[in-house]
Design a protein that fits this description.
By secondary structure, the protein is mostly helical. The chain is built from 2 helices and no strands. It has helices spanning 3-20, 29-40. The longest helix has 18 residues, at 3-20. The protein is elongated and about 60 Å long. The termini are far apart.
Length: 58
Amino acid sequence: MAVPDLLAQLLRAWRRDVLSAPVPQLVDPVHAARLVRDAARVHASPDEARTRARNGSV
């Protein structure tokens, strides 16, 4: 059996193993969305250094 075939076989077995155990929901989606939205509202650093472009400006 060629190496790519062995790798594909290994990855399929790994995927079956991973999918066999259900993963519980770790974070409430509404809460997570709120956190991401709030984090996106971050303004300049305390020393007023520009850390990223705002409103599409560079």
